Amino acid sequence: MKVLELKGIKKSIGQEQILKGIDLHVSMGEFVAVVGASGSGKSSMLYIMGLLDKPTEGEVFFEGEKIDFSNDVKLSQIRNKKIGFVFQFHYLLPEFNLLENVMLPAIKLGMRKDEAKERAYELLKALGLGGKEGRKIYQISGGEMQRVAIARALINEPSLLLADEPTGNLDSKNTQAVMNIFQEINAKGTTIVMVTHEMDLAFRSKRIVEMRDGQVLSDRLL
Amino acid sequence: MRHVLFVAFRMLLQRKRQTLVSILGVSMGVSAFIVMSSLMLGFQNYFIQQVIDLEPHVRIKPKEGQQEKEAFALLLGEKPKEKDRILGWQDMLTSLEGHPEILGVAPRLVSRGILKYGTKDKPVTLLGIDPQREPKASIIERFILYKNLKKLETNRTGVIVGVLVAKSLGVDQLGKKLLLVAPNGQTLLVTVEDFFESGITNIDDTRVYINIKTLQSLLDKQGEVNEIILKIKDVNRAEKLSRELQTGIPYEVESWQKAYRNFLSIFKIQNIITYMIVFAILTVSAFGIFNIIMMTVLEKRKDIAILMAMGFTRGDVLMVFMVEGFAIGILGAAVGSVLGFGLQEYLESVKLDVEGLIRTRGFVLDRSPVFYIYALFFSLFFSLLASLYPSYRASRLNPVDIFRSQ
């Protein structure tokens, strides 16, 4: 079953065309690595996949349903319930402790506070952050912050996890830890699309999509 | 909404100092509004209440300017014209007494005069009254210090003088003899039977009550009156009733509102100035709120972007910052109300001689709870207004632009 499908996606910013007609689909359970040089359009494509950005041309289908980019409420609902984001920077909110950061999307979803708390506890524990739930973000390391961001992305059990250079700010040890987590959650059924420029990380996925100048250059299964 | 409150309050609490300053700004405006309104309206209501109690609700008198002309005519030896007095006043009294809206009616003869005591003299307004009828048409007895109104009946040369008239003349005891000089040059030795204090400076400084018959005799106007005063059931209907009575009466029918229109106009101007000052204070505090929320929006762009990525709608983001403004408004109103209440308590405890349009011992405050409701409304209005634009700006941020810029 296709989780996501892009048909003829074009994206321009000003006069510059960043995406020049992308046709791509992602099936349930896949772990796709999108690789390419800087400026190849991989992040732009990821933002459209995550329904954060509107294509200039083309259509996006999420779980078979055509996306109406003019409906902010509907887009937000899909992002909240079905898509998790992990970025190069953790983007954790400094006002909240780790547990609360993870709980936020669940609270937005309308989950009961105690249920959200319990789920956040479990996720943090599973990601090796048990006992640190009450800490503020400045009290943990960069690798731990990224793991909290992953926990936050997973709390609503999304059908698609989008990661934009998730290890870009991490040392090799933490990079391996994050990749291990991705492989584990993918093994449990979560579909992942990860943008990276590091080929060794891309080879830990199941499929590599290579981009160049706003187009898909190659798409191969591993 | 839970998620909105969750984020909004955390953001506010994280910027404790700025939030506190904003709350204090609003609370200053709120307390200023409460105290200034209660002082201003307290003073105005006191004045109006005294006027309503003491002065006729409606008076019938010769057309404007006739009394002054009469004084000149008398000086020049002319006989008073008929239009300077109220003709057939006895019939008019009887007729008015039967009116369902009228509680009491009394005749008066009003004139100017000069009171002399030793080397001092004082121009006064002489009110010739019928001591039996007068209390039916005004609450004069409430303002007479020793309750000797009836003595004007037994002692035809008795007078009741305003406390400030007495003070000007240096009269501080009952029974003192004063020389009364009428506009026609006639003089009469009168005895101080009582003092009169309304608290309204203008009245206490000019007014002298005397038996109407004595004044008629002194002015050589036997049987004449130039004013009929009415006390009515509903003081707020005075203006309307006076217009109704005017039909068919060849004299001027004047309501208390019309008689005191100059003061009432001043009160309106006072109120406008007061509310302009409060508006200015609240506007300044609104800029404080605008500033803090705008700063938060600019500093929290990344956070706003990630909130949108995790599913917050643009409406949610708008609400997060509107709630911040609302919370500052509510807290500012609460702190301001407590401050305002404290200031009211303090002002009420101060026993200070206040002299101006009215004279009181201490400040006269209107402690109506309505001011607190208005203050809450105004603070919320200004807070929400101030947070509207920054909140809108936050809701229009494009998360992709923010992620790209990192």
How would you describe the overall organization of this protein?
The complex is a heterodimer of chains A (222) and B (406). Chain A is of the alpha/beta class. Chain A has helices at residues 42-49, 72-82, 98-109, 113-126, 142-154, 172-187, 199-202, and strands at residues 2-13, 16-27, 31-36, 57-62, 65-66, 83-86, 160-164, 191-195, 207-212, 215-221. In chain A, α3 (98-109) packs parallel to α5 and α5 runs parallel beside α6. Chain A starts with a strand and ends with a strand. The model of chain A has no long low-confidence stretch (mean pLDDT 88). Helices cover 56% and strands 17% of the residues of chain B. Chain B has helices spanning 2-14, 16-54, 66-75, 89-97, 134-137, 151-154, 163-169, 201-204, 212-218, 238-246, 256-259, 261-299, 301-309, 314-349, 370-395, 399-405; strands spanning 58-61, 102-117, 120-129, 158-162, 177-181, 187-196, 207-211, 227-232, 252-255, 353-355, 359-361. In chain B, the strands form two sheets. Chain B has a six-stranded mixed β-barrel with strand order 2-3-7-4-6-5. In chain B, strands 10-11 form a two-stranded antiparallel ribbon. In chain B, a hairpin with a 2-residue loop joins β2 and β3 (120-129). In chain B, α2 (16-54) packs across α14 and α12 crosses α14. The chains are: A alpha/beta (222), B alpha+beta (406). The interface between A and B is medium-sized, with 30 and 27 residues.
Topology:
The complex is a heterodimer of chains A (222) and B (406).
Chain A: E1 2-13, E2 16-27, E3 31-36, H1 42-49, E4 57-62, E5 65-66, H2 72-82, E6 83-86, H3 98-109, H4 113-126, H5 142-154, E7 160-164, H6 172-187, E8 191-195, H7 199-202, E9 207-212, E10 215-221
Parallel strand pairs in A: 3-8, 3-9, 6-7, 7-8
Antiparallel strand pairs in A: 1-2, 1-4, 4-5, 9-10
Helix pairs in contact in A: 3-4, 3-5, 5-6
Chain B: H1 2-14, H2 16-54, E1 58-61, H3 66-75, H4 89-97, E2 102-117, E3 120-129, H5 134-137, H6 151-154, E4 158-162, H7 163-169, E5 177-181, E6 187-196, H8 201-204, E7 207-211, H9 212-218, E8 227-232, H10 238-246, E9 252-255, H11 256-259, H12 261-299, H13 301-309, H14 314-349, E10 353-355, E11 359-361, H15 370-395, H16 399-405
Parallel strand pairs in B: 3-7, 4-6
Antiparallel strand pairs in B: 1-8, 1-9, 2-3, 2-5, 2-8, 4-7, 5-6, 10-11
